[in-house]
Amino acid sequence: MQKFLSDAAEFLPILLQGVWLTIVVTIGSLLLSTVLGLFWALLRVSGIRVLSGITVGLINVIRGIPIIVLLFYLYFVMPEFGLTLTALQASILGLGIAYSAYQSENFRAGIEAIDKGQIEAAQAIGMGWWMTMRRVVLPQAIKIVLPPYGNVMIMMLKDSSQASTITVAELALQGKLIASSTFKNTSVFTLVALMYLTMSIPLILLVRHFEKKASQK
Q: Residue ranges of the domains in the chain?
């Protein structure tokens, strides 16, 4: 135990640098996936068959491509088409696009859970489709999607480790570099696991809070 604490004191400052990048990747990709996911969901429920069909096809394509392949494509392939991204930009874009498909399903489920009578009543008093969505549907749908949205946040935090595959020095890569240079695998990866757990627990408790509130209604 004393040896582990000594290793922790030595490696923690370096690992904390990786934590910062992990948080940046997670927040950036979460924001992007939320915007894209809501956009896909609105197209799905727009009632325009062509847009809905195209969106379904696009979502299926996104869900069928592994995140790591998407990251490789953005970072290594896109420069051949004249678009060069930094590793951090490619990570945020790749994870944001990948998770937008799951966010889309969450938002769509929330929107479709709203009583159709409310939508008909809003349209009966002269509200257009977009105003109905903005003032009637989305405020209620957001409350419904909060628990699954929290679960997506937790998964995205853990999947941010895949950014290490394109040289983003986040927590997982920092741990790997330290372990390979010191050969203290047990201490290093135990620390990495504890740090991921420390970041995940508040999100897990938040999701549980949302689920309890939702079940009380």
A: 2-114+146-215
